[in-house]
Amino acid sequence: MGDGAPLPGEPTAGLGNAADRESLLSVTSLSVRFGRGTGPVVDGLDFALAPGETLAIVGESGSGKSVTSHAIMRLTDYAPGADVTGAIEFRRPDGSLQDMLRAAPDTIRAIRGNEIAMIFQEPMTSLNPVFSVGNQIAEAVMLHQGLDHASALRQAEAMLDQVRIPDAVHVLDRYPHQLSGGMRQRVMIAMALSCRPRLLIADEPTTALDVTIQAQILSIIREQQRELGMAVIFITHDMGVVAEIADRVLVMRAGAKVEEAPVRQLFRAPAHPYTKLLLNAVPHLGTPGNALAGAFADRKAAPPLCQVDGLTARFDVRHDRLGRVTHRVHAVEEVSFEIQPGETLALVGESGSGKTTIGRMIQQLTVPTGGKIRFRGKDVAELRGPAQRAHLQKVQYVFQDPYASLDPKRTVGDSIAEPIRTHRLLNGRRAIETRVAELLQRVGLEPGQAKRYPHEFSGGQRQRICIARALASEPELIIADEAVSALDVSIRAQVLDLFMQLQAERGLAYLFITHDMAVVERISHRVAVLYLGQLVEIGPAAAVLGNPQHSYTRRLLSAVPVPDPDRVPDRSGLTGEIRSPVRPVGETPPIARFRREGPGHLVATEDGAAIVRAA
Amino acid sequence: MSLALPVRGRRRSAGIRNFELIAGGILTTAMVALALVAPTLFPNVNKMDLRARLLPPFTDLAHWLGTDPLGHDVFARIATGGRISLVVGVVSVLGAVSVGTLAGLVAGYYRGIADTILMRIADIQLALPFMLMAITFIAILGPGLPILITLMIVAQWVQYARLVRGITLTLRDREFVQAARAIGVAAPVIIWKHVLPNAAGPIIVLMTLNVANNILLESSLTFVGLGVDPTVPSWGGMLADGRTYVQTAWWVTVFPGLAIMFTVLGLNLLGDWLRDRLDPTSSR
Question: CA nearest A217: which of A180, A249, A176, A269?
Answer without folding.
Answer: A180
